[in-house]
Amino acid sequence: AQSVTQPDIHITVSEGASLELRCNYSYGATPYLFWYVQSPGQGLQLLLKYFSGDTLVQGIKGFEAEFKRSQSSFNLRKPSVHWSDAAEYFCAVGHTNAGKSTFGDGTTLTVKP
Amino acid sequence: DTAVSQTPKYLVTQMGNDKSIKCEQNLGHDTMYWYKQDSKKFLKIMFSYNNKELIINETVPNRFSPKSPDKAHLNLHINSLELGDSAVYFCASNPGQGGRTEAFFGQGTRLTVV
Cβ atoms within 10 A of the Cβ of A5, count? Predict the structure, then answer.
């Protein structure tokens, strides 16, 4: 069965430090992969997505993610975190024939001043 | 111009009551969803509609009944509310084949059952 694992429940980084949020997926075919961000009291917003092609994808707000098929991973990175990046981050894998996406359990990012 | 809008944003009600949450999208998308986010922020799909037809029902109790009067609207009616129904409910829409494209989410409805 398709699944998404975000191993880190909570991550704290200092403002200006680099960030990497981990995501591992289990899917039989080429996956459609997404990262979403949820700010407090808000809905989810797409940061970036991967379907095919270049395995390093750029997203909004300075985020990027790298698809590594050999490791079944799609980790999210940002070189320098801003206080406004504090939020919940969700990785998701799209089911091509089932009309839905499966979400990971999320990683809460706290940014220290 | 809100793309996916839900009403109400907050809903506090007593156990046993019946309540509805409304959702509208102005993106012209064919697919709409209801998700439930629990207190641990886990996000689970409940229902999916494509062009007014139910295509996903993820083992949700019969007390939950979605209704899609047209492809721009997907409402959620909940009968006999229970304490465990307290959560944030998100409506979302998707332009095409659900798994291949990203979802656009509403701001959520925080339901509190007391």
Answer: 14
Strand partners, A97: none
List CB contacts (< 8 A) between B90 and chain A: 43-44
Instruction: Please give the Cα distance from A68 to A56 (Å, whole number).
Output: 9
Residues of A in contact with B43 (CB under 8 A): 44, 90, 103, 106
Q: Give me the mean pLDDT over the A64-75 stretch.
A: 96
Residue stretches of chain B with pLDDT short of 50: none
Please compute the mean of the pLDDT values over residues A55-74 and round it to a whole number.
Answer: 96
The answer to whether the Cβ–Cβ distance between B98 and A105 falls below 8 Å is no
Q: Which among B23, B66, B45, B38 is positioned nearest to A92, based on CA atoms?
A: B45
- In sequence order, the 6+-apart residues with CB closer than 8 A to the CB of A70 are none
Question: Which of B4, B34, B41, B50 is best to mutate for the A interface (most A CBs within 10 A)?
Answer: B41
Distance, CA of A93 to CA of A91 (rounded, Å):
7
Positive or negative, the Cα torsion across B60, B100, B54, B89?
positive
Direct distance between the N- and C-terminal alpha carbons of chain B, in angstroms, rounded to an integer: 34
State mean pLDDT over A13-36: 93
Q: Is A47 exposed, middle or buried (0-12, 13-18, 19+ CB in 10 A)?
A: buried
- Quote the mean pLDDT of chain B: 93
Per-residue pLDDT tens over the stretch B73-106: 999 999 999 999 999 999 999 987 667 888 999 9
